[in-house]
Every structure is written in C-alpha cells, then in structure tokens.
Amino acid sequence: MDIFHETPEPFLLKELEKIGPKQKGIVMQSVKDVVQSLVDDGMCHCEKIGTSNYFWAFPSESAIKRQNRLKGLEKDIEQMEAKQRELTDAIDKAQLGREQTAERTSLNEELAEVEAEWRAQQTELQTFKECDPVLMKQKRDESVVARNATNRWTDNVFIMQGWVCEKFNMDQADFAKYFGIPADLDSV
C-alpha cells in the first residue's frame, strides 16, 4: 500500500514486480499474490485497459471509506438507541395497571388454581381417551378399510393361484407349498 500511496499514478504488474523488491523488500515471486490480495480486500483497484492490467490506490480513498463506515455505524447506533427508547416506553406502558395490589395477588392465585385444575382434568381426559366415541368411530372405519384391503389381496392371491395352476398345469397344494401360502388362507 505504501507504493500506491507514494505516487498518485497507476502501475502495471511488471512495474510493481520491479519496485516491490527494491523499495519495500518484498520477494519478487510474491508481489503478484500480495497485489491480488490487496485487490480482493478492496484496498487496491485493478482495471484492465487494452491488454494490460493497471493497479492503483489513493490515500484519500481509504480515509473516505473509513469515514463512510463510521457514518454508517453512527447511524446504526442512532437507530438502535431509538429502538431501545421505543421498547423501554412500551415496557413502561405495559407495566401501567399491573402494580402489585391485594386484588391482583388474589386474582393471580385464583388463576393458578384454575390452571392446575384444568391440567388435572386434561390428565384425566387422557385416561378416558380410549373410550372417546369419535376415536372409536375412527377405529371402526379404519378396521373396515383394513378388512376390505385384506379381502382384496386374498382374492388377488387366489386369482394368481388359479392362473398359475391352469397355465403351468400345477396342483394348488404345490403352488401353496412353493409360495409359502398357508392352507387356512381365506377371506375375512
């Protein structure tokens, strides 16, 4: 950065490779990497003009960047302080009417008792959930669907058995034995 700040003119990479080792003691092979890292960090500019890449950075530019960042941070601080004031005002407004009085204490105790009773009733309700008429109807409906599906697949097995036995001239007992079909398989 010192090389860029000493003269207000752009440099070619070849010029920087000559100046860097002589004036600043930078190893010639690492000049390109150092310049590229400066470009990547936004501390130096690179522009391709024709077939050449020109590099430059001005001292005033970094000061302007710092000033802009400072202004941005100050603006953020002002916004955060305004939000903090708003939230503090909202808390103060919410606290109005919530002073601890005897009536409020008794109402809070009553609320706690009602909530405890409600939790106990919910627990009791869970023990009787198995007898819930809606749940029972749902289980009956599901069992009908399951029974119909079972019968459909049983029929499919019998149809397949009949087709295989007819097509390949096979006995039904042999088919059941080869495919592991129990002898008592029947529709539900």
UniProtKB/TrEMBL annotation:
One of its GO terms (molecular function) is double-stranded DNA binding. Residues 135-186 form the Leucine zipper with capping helix domain. Its main location: nucleus. InterPro entries: LZ3wCH, Mnd1, Mnd1_HTH. It is found in: Nucleus. GO terms for cellular component: nucleus. Keywords: Coiled coil, Nucleus. Residues 1-59 form the Mnd1 HTH domain. Residues 63-124 form a coiled coil. GO terms for biological process: reciprocal meiotic recombination. The keyword Nucleus applies. It comes from the Eukaryota. Pfam families: LZ3wCH, Mnd1. Belongs to the MND1 family. Required for proper homologous chromosome pairing and efficient cross-over and intragenic recombination during meiosis. This is Meiotic nuclear division protein 1. It comes from Coemansia thaxteri. The gene is MND1.
